[in-house]
Amino acid sequence: MVPTKSALKKALKKGYITVNGFIASTATIINGGERIVLTIPEDPTPNKRLIFPLKVWFEDEHLAAIHKPAGIEVSGNKFKTITNALPQNLKASSLPDATTPQPVHRLDFATTGIVLVGKTNSSIRVLNKMFEDKLISKTYYAVAIGKMKPHGTITTEIDGKPSQSHYKVMESVPSKRFGTLNLVKLCPKTGRRHQLRKHLYSLGNPILGDKEYALEGLILKSKGLYLHAYALEFEHPFTNEIIRITDELPEKFRKLFGSDTR
């Protein structure tokens, strides 16, 4: 049987063809009687794998929780993302609806802390719904600049939508450059984009290291954003256990306030 040009094109995508010992192209004329050989590499297009070790704080057949470092996106079009690193860091689920692990919420590029991951189709759907229904309690820590009231609730609208965050100042230290630095515990009750950063900025107490929501002359460069997703608490949607996951404060926080700050 004489191969057609379309067959040659498909074959060439996977390997190469020789006709009587010469590499063929779609312009090669076949008259009949030629010796045609198709050569296909064992792995012509290997999948790139992101080798990026992650700390895993919790994992079972349904879900997992990992530590997200600063300087990496949770997901997106880039190769280096938390999403692409998950398969190499988590055990594959043995459940019938197991799928490629997927984050069920996001943290900003510069934010550190816990990211919750679904390992099955059903867990991804349920966890997304739990976030929508505010059934997952989130606790953050930030370093905020300037004098603050000991505690309060911020209700400044974000993008025209109702928003709410509770805060409590856990410790304050004097600073030559910033006047006062505060270790602030934050509990967002809504999930708007950049909510905690915008809310603290609206008080006049921007987060240390925030270049986007900052007061003139109070931008800290090259140290990163001092915002950390510290804890998640929720009822496990499949085992009904109460799950509380914590992620210790980064070293740069402890340098400002000491090791026992919570």
TrEMBL record:
What does the UniProt keyword field contain?
Answer: RNA-binding
InterPro entries the UniProt entry points to: PsdUridine_synth_cat_dom_sf, PsdUridine_synth_RluA-like_CS, PsdUridine_synth_RsuA/RluA, RluA_PseudoU_synthase
Matching Gene3D superfamilies: Pseudouridine synthase (3.30.2350.10)
Q: Which Pfam families match?
A: PseudoU_synth_2 (PF00849)
Residue stretches making up the Pseudouridine synthase RsuA/RluA-like domain: 62-200
- Please tell me whether the keyword Ubl conjugation is annotated for this protein: no
**Stored CDD domains:** PseudoU_synth_RluA_like
Q: What protein is this chain from?
A: RluA family pseudouridine synthase
